[in-house]
Amino acid sequence: MSPYRNEHVAISRPVAGSAGHTGAWRVFKPVVNRENCNGCGICALYCPDAVIGEDLVIDLAFCKGCGICANECPKKAIAMVREEK
């Protein structure tokens, strides 16, 4: 067993705060094209709000629409689409 293996890694997950869900003021939302996605998980790695799960589903209740996931996707499988109100 590796001395560096830690089975209890702390992972931050978004939760509703006193202001509610933080995705409510988003202008653009990420939309994943599953046909182009190769499942590499780079989008989740770079997401500053940790709203992309292991199954690469984006939690839009907390996504702020920053577009980092779309920018970092090597397959360009994520498009930033204007929110419809």
TrEMBL record:
This is Pyruvate ferredoxin/flavodoxin oxidoreductase, delta subunit. It comes from Methanoregula boonei (strain DSM 21154 / JCM 14090 / 6A8). The lineage of its organism: Archaea, Methanobacteriati, Methanobacteriota, Stenosarchaea group, Methanomicrobia. Heterotetramer of one alpha, one beta, one delta and one gamma chain. Its cofactor is [4Fe-4S] cluster. Signal peptide: none annotated. Residues 28-52, 54-83 form the 4Fe-4S ferredoxin-type domain. PANTHER family: PYRUVATE SYNTHASE SUBUNIT PORD. InterPro entries: 4Fe4S_Fe-S-bd, 4Fe4S_Fe_S_CS, PorD_KorD. GO terms for molecular function: 4 iron, 4 sulfur cluster binding; metal ion binding; oxidoreductase activity, acting on the aldehyde or oxo group of donors, iron-sulfur protein as acceptor. Keywords: 4Fe-4S, Electron transport, Iron, Iron-sulfur, Metal-binding, Pyruvate, Repeat, Transport. It comes from the Archaea.
